[in-house]
Each structure stands twice: as C-alpha cells, then as structure tokens.
Write a sequence for this structure.
C-alpha cells in the first residue's frame, strides 16, 4: 500500500469498502436466516451487486489515486457478474420449483394443460402437435 | 490509516461471510440450497481476491478473479442443470 494519499481520497475509499463489507456480510447472513428456499434466493444478490460492486469500485478508485491511470478490468468483472447472476438465479429457482413446491397445492391454470414449469417434454410435444393440427 | 482499517474491516466481513457460507453448505436442508451457498462462496471469494489485490498494490489478481467468476458460473449452471435434467450436455 502506498501512503501518499490525501485524506479525502482515503475517506472515499473507506466508505466504499465498509459499505461493501456490510452488504457482503448481510447477504451471507440472510442465506442462513431467511425461512424458505425462494426467499433465500434473494439474499446473496445483495452480496453480488453491492458487495462485490463496492469492492471493485474501491479498487478502481485506489489504482486511479495511487498510480494515476484509470483501469477498466474491474468493470469487466462487474459486467460479467451482472450478466450471469440472473441466469444462476433462474436455474436455482427452477431447481427449487421441482424439488420443494407441492404441485397439488398451487392453484390450477386456465385450460386443460398444466403450468409450463411442470409440463413434461413429451406432454408438451403432444399438446403442441395437437394444437397445430387443429389450427 | 483510515484505508488500512477499512481494508481490514472489509476483509474480516467477507471472511466471516465465507465461514457462514461454508456452514450453510454443510447444514443446508436441500440440494438447491447447497448450490446457492457454493455460488455465494464464489462471489465472496472474488471480493476477497480483489481486496488482496488492493492490499498488495498489484493488478495481477484481477485476471485470477475473472477466471474464478467464469468457473463459478459454469459450475453453478452445471450443478443446477444436473439436478433438473439428470444430465449436463444432452
């Protein structure tokens, strides 16, 4: 670490770092504390966006203050995480849907086909064949 | 001085978060919860790696954290897909 930094620069970096640390901790605490699987899916998004995002912004500013040139590697990590987080959440939500949700307890959809998430591939193919022949 | 304390505090926060996730991996009630805990471990590990880069004052660790992010994403998707379909590449 270089010590030749103005006080306001250190304060700005410290604010970003402390915010990021608290959000990371809250995200992982929520993972333990929240009551059911779908709500637990919500907690780590705080760690992904504000936790890692804060650390990466602090790192960008640190290398700007210390070395004088702005680097954009950090934005690449942020971009990658922002792109992949929804995909991961979608896959885990589907996994939860198929392991934890009682299919008889959800309200029935309109029409004679089941909810799209619960319909098997064969049933969907047969139903779509029938619909295209009828049309 | 302020920056050093903030770095120590943040590293401590993420280390504690990693320990919580590890406990979650061991004691979660279902498989999707374990996958979620592993995914969160990867996220927290990226944060710790970037913090270590700031402490050491080098930019070498960014490449490593990009690689960790990619491997973490691929492995989470592979786990979830294996749970859903019983197969990864069909």
């Amino acid at each position: 670490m270089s010590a030749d930094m103005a006080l306001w620069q250190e304060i700005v970096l410290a604010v970003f770092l402390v915010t990021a640390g608290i959000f990371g901790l809250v995200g992982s605490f929520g993972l333990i504390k929240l009551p059911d699987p779908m709500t637990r899916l919500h907690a780590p998004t705080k760690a992904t966006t504000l936790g890692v995002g804060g650390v990466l912004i602090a790192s960008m500013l640190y290398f700007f203050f210390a070395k004088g040139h702005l680097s954009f590697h950090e934005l690449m990590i942020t971009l990658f995480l922002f792109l992949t987080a929804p995909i991961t959440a979608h896959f885990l939500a589907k996994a939860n849907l198929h392991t934890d949700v009682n299919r008889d307890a959800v309200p029935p959809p309109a029409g004679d086909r089941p909810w799209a998430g619960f319909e098997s591939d064969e049933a969907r193919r047969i139903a779509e064949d029938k619909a295209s022949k009828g049309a | 001085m302020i920056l050093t304390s903030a770095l120590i505090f943040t590293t401590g926060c993420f280390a504690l978060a990693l320990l919580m996730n590890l406990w979650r991996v061991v004691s979660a009630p279902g498989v999707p919860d374990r996958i979620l805990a592993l995914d969160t471990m990867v996220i927290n590990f990226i944060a710790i790696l970037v913090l270590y880069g700031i402490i050491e004052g080098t930019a070498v660790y960014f490449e490593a954290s990009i690689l960790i992010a990619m491997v973490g994403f691929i492995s989470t998707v592979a786990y979830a897909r294996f749970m859903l379909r019983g197969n990864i590449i069909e």
Observations:
- The two ends of chain B are 55 Å apart (CA to CA).
